[in-house]
Amino acid sequence: MGTHVLVVEDEADLRTALVELLSIWGYRVITACDGREALERLGVGKEPVVMLLDLQMPVMTGDELLDEVSRHPPGRPLRIVVLSANLDVHRRESHGHVTVALNKPVLPERLHASVESAVHALE
User: Fold this and answer.
1) CB atoms < 10 A from the CB of 10, how many?
2) Structure confidence by residue, pLDDT tens digits, 57-69
3) How far apart are the first and last CA of the chain?
4) Range of the domain at 115
5) Total domain count, the chain
6) How far is 121 from 117, CA to CA, in rounded Å?
7) Helical H segments across 11-107, by residue range
8) Each residue of 13-30: pLDDT tens digit?
9) Crossing angle for the helix pair 12-24 and 108-121, nearest 10 degrees?
10) Pairing between strand 98-103 and 79-84?
11) E strand intervals along 1-123
12) How far apart are alpha carbons 100 and 120 in whole angstroms?
């Protein structure tokens, strides 16, 4: 595949696990530990086409990042898979870039299907 995926997650162990899974599935993974770092990643080099986004993070929350992406869309199409332990699914999925919102913990099979769906939504 080689599709770039940006993982935005403040919990290091979960971020590492997501990177390992995505790499096994053939994705190229970029990481960020908060929304501000994610914005930097969106503007430099190979922009991701899919972002896995935690909502509860320090510095800049996932909701704040979603608002920023709405105001200043990245240079190429971006689909977002929200991962959170505390979801208001309808509010998240109403955001234009959000493909799906998943509750943590998420089964690897469900995560894989959601990322694949996000990738194919851009084709």
Assistant:
1) 18
2) 888 888 899 888 8
3) 13
4) 4-121
5) 1
6) 6
7) 12-24, 35-42, 62-71, 89-93
8) 999 999 999 999 999 999
9) 70
10) parallel
11) 4-8, 28-32, 50-54, 79-84, 98-103
12) 13
